[in-house]
Amino acid sequence: MTLESAPDFTVPADRPVTGEQVTSPGSEWWRTAVIYQIYPRSFADSTGDGIGDLPGITSRLHSLAELGVDAVWLSPFFSSPQKDAGYDVSDYCDVDPMFGTLADFDTLMATAHDLGLRVIADMVPNHTSDQHRWFQEALASSEGSAERDRYMFRDGKGPNGDIAPNNWESVFGGPMWQRITNPDGTPGQWYLHIFDVSQPDLNWENPWVREQFFDILRFWLDRGVDGFRVDVAHGMIKEEGLPDYTPPMETASMGGTAAAATDLVPGIADVPPDPPYWGHSGVHDIWRGWNAVLAEYPGDRVMAAEAWVDPLEKMALWVRPDEFSQAFNFGYMFTEWTARDMRKVVDDSIAAFGAVGAPSTWVLSNHDVVRHATRLALHADVPQGSGIGPKTPGKPDTASGLRRARAATSLMLSLPGSAYLYQGEELGLPEDMELPDSARQDPTWLRTNHEKYGRDGCRVPIPWEADKPSYGFGPSGNSWLPQPEDWAPYARDAQEGLAGSTLELYRTALALRSEHRLGAGAVQWLDGYGPDVIALRNGPVTVIVNLGKVAVELPIGELLLASEDIIGGALPADTAVWLRS
Ligand code: BGC
Ligand code: MG
User: Which architecture, in CATH terms, is 29-124+364-514?
Assistant: First the structure.
């Protein structure tokens, strides 16, 4: 990016303007925030065991403040047997020794707040670990007991009860039911697990379960957290009678609903009904209760839903004023890289969330999906959660993926509302497609007999220092997933201050976003640049993105940001610029 050598651009005032989109009112910080997701086991390791930890995070927080984000969201660091990388919690009110102690958490919190960063914890209420005391007590108690009623126990079918209660299939592969053995050694009831067999689903119809989580929320709110990201917020209530369900087609596996992710945009009528375990309207009552707990605390605490529901109009029901503050916009994440689709999803998102007074969110990567620097160069659809690996056909080209990713991020950070970043994307990290089979740990890989690679490729520990063992991830060369040998150029210290680096692009975009208050702005579309170009104005900034294959002429204007070198006044393919309007 050679800002200095760029010609002087002026955006003509007579450019046709269509379809203004305004954001929601309200002054809470999270409406406009950029929130950085830390995946603790892969962020920074202080102990040398190859697993990231809380002191490691604390030691690196200043670099996130320098990057210019407003908040961090920490994926789970609670006590856990780590069968699903911490999304299998055995004690919600303690820190897993692998990650540190509660005192380490308090230090992290205090350091973050001193740096002006808010901290969001990841609450996992749909299921516990099978090692959680509640589940162990349920196993030890008799059928029909209060302890059993904390979870979803059912009798099996058939004369001996040895057929699963229904035909549901786990998100990670295999049946969604597991039969238990009674304390006296006889075969017993079955329990439901939407995810791994080690993650039994809680029974959220049971008021006792609801009460426990009010206490858990207060435990972390008392420790100062600024809010929660809520895991599988769409799965907690199941349809009465647990009817059999056969998905209409091979769908996005992680949380995917019956509709493919790219079908999010049409009206509700176009979308097949949700499976009986996703998106049940009974969940809204739970979220109203949680919202009320957060409201007991001063300041604006945020509650962000991981809710894979289609379409956007339905997702918007989750962010009504007395429920979640915001929800991840997965429709945006999976939108095809075309001007028409991107513009439509931006319009539809702002309209759908805005209709209930919520900000839209924007997100391109997280710990469950193929990193967008690779995903945007994939030639075929990869169902979400399936992952990619050495045998995936049509190897994506890293350079064109990164180019698109930089353009896509430049667009995302210009939009009003709240944006989520996933650790490593500011370094332009690609998905690691070459992880050896023996290193893979995702339950998806294990439960599908290695048919689906799963999500390990986006979870590889991130590089900090090009010349250090484990690229400075920790003090030793250890890394719980092996790091690729060619990652030195991605290291943070190799990109710091380097003109044109992805890190500097993110830093510039975040500084401009903050300076011009783009998060609180509105989208005004500018037409006339051709079918493969998106052009919009947000406050004093004009954003032009070329999603096509041929360069387009740029208007005259002061260049604020460019995702690639701009030479001679033309906007190349897969490139975004911000100009001063
Ligand atoms: C998390 C996943 C996790 C699953 C089960 C999610 O959607 O983001 O990483 O495996 O919930 O807790
Ligand atoms: Mg460690």
Answer: Alpha-Beta Barrel (3.20)
